[in-house]
Each structure stands twice: as C-alpha cells, then as structure tokens.
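Reopening this one. Same input as before:
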Amino acid sequence: MPHRKPVTVPGMDFDTLWHHPGEWFEAPNVYRQGWSGVSRIPLGPADGSRPLYAFLKRQHNFMRRTWRHPWHGVSTFYCKYHHLLRLLKLGVPVPAPLFFSEKKEGRNVNAILVTAELVGFTPLDQLAADIFKADVSITRQRKLAASVAEAVSKFHSTRLQHRALYPKHILVKETPCGNFDMVLIDLEKARIRLLPLLRTLQDLATLNRELMHLSRTTRLYFLKRYYGVHKLDTALKWIARLIQDRTRRKAKT
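Same output, byte for byte:
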C-alpha cells in the first residue's frame, strides 16, 4: 500500500500515529460499523520559531464501494489520498498529503491520512460575509468571485464532482498584492462524473444555495468566470436556470 512519511518527523509510523494520544480536533463521525476522526498534531518548528502542524485523520471500517471493489469497498481515505495526488499533479489547489497507510486485521480496516495544515486560510463563508459588503470595492469582490470560480472550474476539469461543495470547504487566503489563493478541502465524497453538466449542476447548486445572500450580478459574474466567457450564450443561460431551479428545490427540503 503506498504511503508517505512526514519528513519533519523521522521514525513516525502507522502504529505511532494510530495511537497518538492527542484530543480530537473534530468529534469522530460514526457510520454503520465504522468511525472517522481528526486530530491536530505538531510536526516540529519550521524555522526554529514557528511550529508546523498537520491534521492526523484516523478511521476504522469507514468504507465506500467502488466499481473495482463492489462488495467490501475501500477506505474513504484510500480514495481521498489518490484524489489528492492526482489533483496536485494537475495543479488543482488541494491540501498536501504527507502520509497514508492502511492496516487490515481480519475484516477490519484501519486507515490513516495526514495532511499539512493550511496556515492563514479562512473558510469562504466567513470571508464572503466581510468582502461582499456595500463599502468594499467591486474590484476586490470580483477578484474573490473569479478566484473561487476558476478553482472550482479547474477541479471539475479533472472529471471529479466534489459532492459537498459548501463554502466552508473552500479555504481562502488574501495575498499582500490583493489576490486570493484557494484550497478545496474535504474530498471524501468526491466521485468521477463523466458528464460535465452533472458536475456543474450539482456542485454549483450547492454553492449557490449557501451564498444566496450575494447579489444576482455577483453570482452571474461567478458563472462567467467559471466558464471563461465574457457573456453567457443561450446554452449557458439555460444551465444558469437549471442551477437556480435546483437551488430553490433543495432549499425547500
């Protein structure tokens, strides 16, 4: 099974990580006969002054079925790890995986995934509340909207659908020059979708529903940057209506 060790923590292995005594950063999710939880762990100082941290994610029998493993399935971390490696190779902004490994004991599967902590990033839902105000310049607002749209578009170009594209799963950091860096997180539910319309419709409707407080102009600008066009043609206007219709239906459920 492929794995990577954090180079800043020599000698750390599966058993050491699995039995790490730290508290849970997030309460473990329980699903059927399995569970999955996250802890924040130190890796050591970056330059002798600022410490480095990572997120240690452990799961037990937290499985999903795939076409290659239709009966017993594979751990969701196995899928996420390989998604991260592929996305990084393609230039999609996602967290860097530092370590992955599994251990099977009979029918039980324990899996570990360690990813680097993202320093200075803020969830989009929090940043949007500050940026999209009347006293903030349109230029700054559009830079943020364009950065998010282009990151999501690049993600979808890999044929993956996020399936949980909430603003809290898009982390943003404003740079000193006024641009915005993006990182897409929480890819456990990501799936390959061969039809581009399905990827767009479902993910953007989720994002749109959570950002309905933004102006219609801002959301249309987002869609134009997502498609890389200056003006929506008839087909793209039809897609925009589909996204809006799905947004409304899901908002009522």
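So the earlier flakiness isn't reproducible anymore. For the record, Residues 138-156 form the longest helix (19 residues).
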